[in-house]
Amino acid sequence: MNKSELLELLPSLPSSAQRLLDRLLDPNDRGWFPLPGPQMQAYFSEADETFYGGAAGGGKSDLLLGLAHTEHYQTIIFRREFPQIKGLEERMAEILGSTAGYNSQRKFWRLPGGRSLEFGSVPHLGDEQKYQGRPHDLKAFDEITHFLEAQYRFLIGWTRTSRPGQRTRVIATGNPPTTPEGEWVEKYWGPWLDPQHPNPAKPGELRWFASIDGKDVEVDGPKPFMHKDELVEPKSRTFIPARVEDNPYLMASGYKRQLQNLPEPLRTRMLLGTFGMEREDDPWQIIPTAWIDAAMERWSTRKKPDFPLTSTGVDVARGGKDKTVIARRYGNWLDELETHPGLTTPDGPKVAALVLSATRGKGTVNIDIIGVGASVYDSLVVSMDDVVGLNGAAGSKAKDRTGKLGFVNKRAEWYWHLREILDPEHGEDIALPPDRELRADLTAPRWKLTTRGIRVERKDDIQAPIGRSPDKGDAAVYAFAEENARFNPIGV
Fold it and tell me: Looking at the structure, do residues 191 and 217 belong to the same domain, yes or no?
């Protein structure tokens, strides 16, 4: 295509493509341009939320910096830790040819043409609050799997602009997760990343999602609709994969050879961008991931037992963002978890009514009585014969299977008990429902050996890495704690 043909094509192109073509035709423009292929596809993507990358070397960070430089007027790029921003600062200076306009103390860059770029970080859960109400037309996340889902959802809430005609969007870049904390990304972009998704999407394809009663629901398209007297406007998502082969500059530098020499499974993650892979467990993880996955696989191949309900574990929400979770157990088979938002379970009688409805008054109910759970316990004991109050902070006289190790408290005892019955060599063939949050909750806790015995992380300590309270994991643990707690109803 010659220059005259390009000029004839110009009016039919989207505004961003017109601007880029104008620059390409300008012999004096030596600025940043997207690479042909996936990077350019992400540059022009119409999605409200784009996840770009997967493998290492596909020009992920460059895409964010290039868009800030050429297409957006108020950009913020987040990294989880501030020291990780240094590479972005250095690369932006290369693109611009200098550090002119950059305030290193504020991490704020005044760019040519009236544009601005800010760097932000949220190392701890709660740090995202300091960005509340801060508008940007491009919210960008470099290495999205390092962030907590709660942080991401909060920060994108202020993606907006007052500039007429300016597009707003969110772009996340990253590689496959290597820790449980990042596995939410595989669910959030499930149609592209989850190999078991029932309706998979093609790279770059737009899918539309709406928040209905606090849950993400995929819908048919962008058309707004009414739900409970509220107008709901769906937002689009997409995933565009890229590899080092898509970046001629890194290919020429020999970077692919470096990726090929990484140890597995890191090699496959970084070189191919493969999601859904097994990760290496932390040595102090209480329950090995493989044991949980095996239990969930067993659940998928079995039918629900036809004998009466054995026991039910109940974890009561301690706040509006937490969930009240009811976990019903039939022998060694745990039923699908029943969850209720904390805002809908504000007091003991309401939770007790939900438990009675779920159990029909049958079996043992094991309920956490610390804090708000005590009120639920008081409401249940007048309606059921077998209600067990669990106090995880109470002391424990139990020993592990070997008879050598004790426990600092009942919480450690109950978690270790679930570990032992999930053990493929000595366990009880437990079946757990396939549930991503349950899997994350059960793989998150760590333990250590103290002079008093095995200690398990407190619930509040687990909340920081996964970005929420491990309500489902605790409810499952309580469901299997029956034999340990029966002889000591209040755990003291």
Answer: yes
